[in-house]
């Protein structure tokens, strides 16, 4: 019974994380990108060995306070999940984008290793 409860709790925690992630992505993609200077990037998530799992792009024209609060909550919940279930991850460093450009109405991160 204890294993079943732990698996059930883990599945519930994963559903919460997935739901929060979907809400974050929905908010970040809710604005059509026409000017990359109106976009920002923020660290999202927590790898088990430290650091963010990715950077998410968002427009300054959304409710940035609500968005960043949701990002912060997701990151905390993922960190808690990692500790609770002994999660493992790669320890590869995820770099923030150097700039953000608009491609076909979508914000796109640009890094030094991207080809022009």
Structural description of this entry:
The chain has 116 residues and is of the alpha+beta class. The protein has one domain. It contains two helices and four strands, in the order H-E-E-H-E-E. The strands form two sheets. It has a two-stranded antiparallel ribbon with strand order 1-2. A hairpin with a 2-residue loop joins strand 3 and strand 4 (106-110). Helix 1 (2-28) packs antiparallel against helix 2 (64-85). It is globular and about 50 Å long.
Short description:
The chain is an alpha+beta fold. The chain has helices spanning 2-28, 64-85, and strands at 39-44, 54-59, 99-103, 106-110.
Task: Show the helix and strand layout.
Elements lengths: L1 H27 L10 E6 L9 E6 L4 H22 L13 E5 L2 E5 L6
Antiparallel strand pairs: 1-2, 3-4
Helix pairs in contact: 1-2
């Amino acid at each position: 019974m204890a294993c079943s409860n732990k698996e059930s709790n883990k599945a519930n925690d994963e559903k919460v994380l997935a739901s929060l992630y979907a809400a974050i992505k929905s908010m970040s993609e809710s604005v059509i990108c026409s000017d990359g200077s109106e976009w920002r990037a923020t660290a999202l998530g927590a790898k088990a060995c430290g650091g963010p799992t990715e950077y998410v792009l968002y427009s300054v024209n959304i409710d940035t306070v609500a968005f960043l609060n949701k990002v912060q909550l997701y990151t905390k919940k993922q960190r808690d999940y990692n500790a609770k279930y002994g999660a493992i991850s790669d320890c590869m460093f995820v770099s923030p984008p150097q700039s953000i450009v608009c491609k076909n109405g979508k914000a796109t991160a640009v890094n030094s290793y991207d080809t022009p």
